[in-house]
Amino acid sequence: MLHLRMIVPADRTEEVATLVSATVGATHLTVVRGAAYDPVGDLLTCDVAREAADPLLAALRKLGIEDAGAIAVENVDVTLSRSADQAERDAPGEGADAVVWESLVEATHEESTLTFTYLAFLTVATMLAAYGVMLDSSILIVGAMVVGPEFGPLAGVCTGLVRRRGRLVARSLMALAVGFPAAMLLTGGFSYLMSGLGLFTQARFDAPHPATQFIWQPSWDSFVVAFLAGIAGMLSLTSAKSGALVGVAISVTTVPAAANASLAISYSTWHEVWGSSLQLAVNLAGIACAGTLTLLAQKWLWAMQRRRVPAA
Asked: What's the pTM?
């Protein structure tokens, strides 16, 4: 279930209350007159089944509640109520399959913004991956993959394309276009520092790296893995199963490829620069394509499911 908290102008309260009452899957409607001071209005709350939330939110936006008042949405972990159980049974489809588009847009908007924190995580992840390449350590490579925040902007691109939100697409592309070059530049400086300290050497970089050589050797396997990871990642976001994102993070080699390219530039190993850059591009493209197609498929399947339940 999801919990909605709304501030509604007094002259729109009855209209909103009627809308919520008529929504299949909504229950626990509460109205507190004159409770809100900023903005001024009445306070309305309700619980709604996840699979019924998106149509209700869309209707509230059409009424202009977000402009004249406010709408807050929270996840409800446990609800002990026969009314709530009945609402979930009445709502069409399954909650795990439903996409709450407004929630997805809001989440990807936050994760795809170019911030200092985003750049810091991406840079640290790239530096960790650089150390993993030098030590030929798959453990460090996996750790760097988990730390990397690049899936957020990729999800923002997918969501923006499907929802036709040009600003979200532009913001996400900016985070990727600025983030990776900045992280690679700083990692290049980090490699020079480590070389000065004697921790990184040309001989160590040129030595065989059986555990990490896949980073700069792209193939169709790379695209397929990235494509599958993109599907899993988008499903984890839309179904609120964030634990699956860890598996997505350690399935693709975006951050390790960027790290290897930085090291290769530092040591003028140009064939690895090309291979790593291509690996990075292949992974980014695979995730973006898969994520967009997954959202389109979910949108179509959910529309078909709702058509089979006219009462919804």
From this structure: 0.81
